[in-house]
Amino acid sequence: MIRAIVLSILAAEVLSAREPKQIILANQGTIAGIYITRFRTKRIAAYLGIPYAQPPIDFRRFTPPEFTDLPKWEGVRNATTYAPDCMQSDPKKEDIQNPLTKHDELFTKLLEGQMEEPRKKDYSEDCLYLNVYVPDELKLEGLPTMVWIHGGDFVRGSPNSLNPFQLVLKQRVIFVSIAYRLNIFGFFSTLDNEASGNFGLLDQVAALTWVKTNIESFGGDPDNVCIFGHDAGAVSVGLHLISSYSSGLFQKAIAMSGNVLSPDTVNIARKELITVDKVANAFSCFRKPTFQLLDCLRRVNYQALLDIGEPLAEWKPIVDNGFSNVSIPFLPDVPSKMFKDEIFSPVPILTGYTNMEDALLLDKGSEDTGLSQREFDVMREEVILSDITVDNSSCFTNQHHIQEAVAFFYKPIPPTTNETILRKLFLDFYTDKVHGSTTYQLAKYISKHAPIYLYRFDLKPFSDIANEGIPDWILVPHNFDLIFAFGMPHLALPEDLSKWDYRDKSISDIIMKMWTNFAWYSNPTNSGVIIQWDPFEIEKPGYFIIDRQNFTMSTPENVNYKAFEFWTDFYPKVVEIGTKCCKEVVDDSGADSILLRKVIFNLIAIYLVTVILS
Q: Which stretch of 93-97, 199-203, 285-289 has the lowest confidence by average pLDDT?
């Protein structure tokens, strides 16, 4: 009895403490955190702005992160405020190169509407910091850790924008959000040993290494780490699956609305040669030798480097094989080739996308007229044209056949001029190609070696506050699944809580439970939910469909498996044959061209017969 009283007194003292317990970090020092509180009785502990590598400034600009000799301090360091975000253009300014999309604009507005006052945006080149959020419990031990990699197309984004309060409070996980270098600071490469590139991804590796070393001090299990990303963060997750640098630093992965197999996720060296020339010219630096180029660029003011350098290229990860003779590449080959060759970490994965990721790009505002037949055809042809490398003028006819194969598959039957139907058909075409088929292909690779759970998010929020600015015809655009994954219906300001429908709150609890179940057990329905979510199997390819009616496994009625097979199996063959003459010298007689045309016609005919018979 006395022992119980003493324990209750100790617990009361801990709960009434102004600060969470101090944490000793290996080879760095001691930090003090802060409580984040809601409704006075609910709180979690947060340790903010912890350095996980040396500042990447001066001579460390355009070099891999230095994390073997970490920043150290005497006494107790206050980890109570967010560090500045990595250098990026203010998304509220007009950015011609990387404009803020409507889905980002609306989601940012929703996030800021839930804050008592908008967070001041500070940017710095010294930005390699992370945040750790921990449940407020007397004794923590062996909790799973979810490491969040933010999105933003590798050019913008912040580890501080999403609030993990509900995830940590209700689901008893440790949540770590990390910053990493962006745009020219994170992805410029001289294509050689001087600056091999991929610094933003190497920053993520440094952060994961820090987590592996220190998370046990916070109550986490260093052998149960789940990397978790959205958009470019999800692409990063996919790249960590195939990079030897990341091997062993995580045990499972969640990738939301971003896929490493999607078109143009990485650059290749021969296409980046012009970028190096552009950067050298823009800052009046000698192009060669590259050590002099880097010496020149490291003297450029950081703001000028951003303002002038960011618009010069589409900054993203690069295949860096052969750049260095002193280190191994982060990305030895294009992701599709590495997955095909089964060069990846076979860890459990949860991944998926929303059913209308890119729908807001088609929104015409008050003119809700859909797409005309001409708009439908031109836009579809432009998407396909981007897949075809044209090296000479002899490719026109072959392109025509490729376009015809796609047009046949997606043409409306019976024919229609209804612009609403045509808009839906284009959206289906684009979603199938960019999101659905790549997720399907990834699952086919992974499922041979580890469980992979697929989902499609069809559930539009019931709350008007979440749908403000989104047309009625759009269900779930890019970003808006994060509403449920981060418990946003519970995070509103007190005066706005009633604006969130109780159904959204309940659904959010279920989604958070499934996502954290996966972090705990590698199975999203292992505990606390009575829902069937089967892992993907090649013989039984299932998607988990999340919609307003119920949560069920997919059927051929709600998932177009034939479209996925078209994009992953048949379409690459058509493109390969259709662009063959672009890479070869064609006989002036046209005999080769005629033969090639026959091959393409036969291939398309075989496919169409197969479709009709099935």
A: 93-97
Which residues in 382-420 are b (16+ Cβ under 10 Å) and which e? Answer: ebbeebeeeeeebbeebbebbbebbeebbeeeeeeeebe
Q: Which of 475, 454, 466 is nearest to 508 (CA)?
A: 466
Q: Where are the domains of the chain?
A: 2-108+120-254, 353-613
- pTM beyond 0.85: yes
CB neighbours of residue 360 within 10 Å: 21
What are the angstrom distances between the C-alpha of 446 and each of 270, 441, 456, 588? 30, 9, 18, 46
Other residues' Cβ atoms within 10 Å of the Cβ of residue 537: 14
SS3 184: helix
Quickly list H helices, 217-282.
232-242, 269-282
CATH class of the structural domain 2-108+120-254? alpha beta
Q: Which amino acid is at 553?
A: M
Give pLDDT tens digits for 263-322. Answer: 889 999 988 999 999 999 999 999 999 999 999 999 999 999 999 999 999 999 999 999
- Pull the structure tokens for residue 33: 């955190």
pLDDT tens digits along 369-384: 789 999 999 999 999 9
Domain 353-613: assigned CATH number: 3.40.50.1820
